[in-house]
Write a structure and sequence with these properties.
The chain is mainly α.
């Protein structure tokens, strides 16, 4: 019942966003992807639609398409691309491309380590990328000053170290 309404009102943004979310929740991956990507094209400057399309594509297991959508999202964000960059890094980790993930996050890591409590996801992604690349010392350096501060940092280091061990076992 939603599809005819969404198709008839392709320029009504709230209907399109709702349709993509409902399709996704209902397990209708193709309809969710079609709606999200079409809406992104209809509204070519709306950054939020880039985020939504990226999330839909990742949720349905299409990381290559999600990367393309995330890059468009990043363009739409202009001078504040960090949310898209963090998502791009996560996609690159899913795609088993840790060097690309690290490269995307490199510009943020110094500021993140200066304010770690507000940058946990970025620091974990960066350290994970380092660990997957065999740069264990660099990964540990991210967390070393924080290990005594709170259990969350020790847990992050253990998860990051586990990535390194599991990756070594695959080799």
């Amino acid at each position: 019942q939603l599809k005819p309404i969404a198709d008839a009102h392709s320029r009504v943004l709230p209907i399109q966003v709702l349709a993509a979310q409902v399709y996704l929740a209902a397990g209708r991956a193709d309809d969710a992807v079609a709606t999200a990507t079409r809406t992104m094209q209809v509204f070519p400057t709306d950054a939020e639609l880039g985020r939504i399309a990226t999330n839909v594509l990742m949720t349905v297991g299409r990381p290559d398409d999600a990367l393309e959508a995330a890059q468009k999202w990043k363009e739409r964000l202009g001078s504040a691309p960090r949310p898209a960059d963090e998502t791009i890094a996560q996609i690159q980790l899913v795609r088993a491309k840790p060097a690309e993930a690290k490269g995307v996050l490199q510009r943020y890591i110094q500021a993140a380590t200066s304010d770690p409590d507000n940058n946990l996801p970025l620091m974990v992604q960066y350290a994970t990328a380092c660990a997957l690349m065999g740069e264990d010392a660099q990964a540990k350096d991210i967390f070393r000053p924080l290990l005594e501060r709170a259990p969350q940092w020790r847990q992050c280091w253990m998860r990051t170290a586990l990535h390194s061990v599991l990756d070594a076992e695959k080799a």
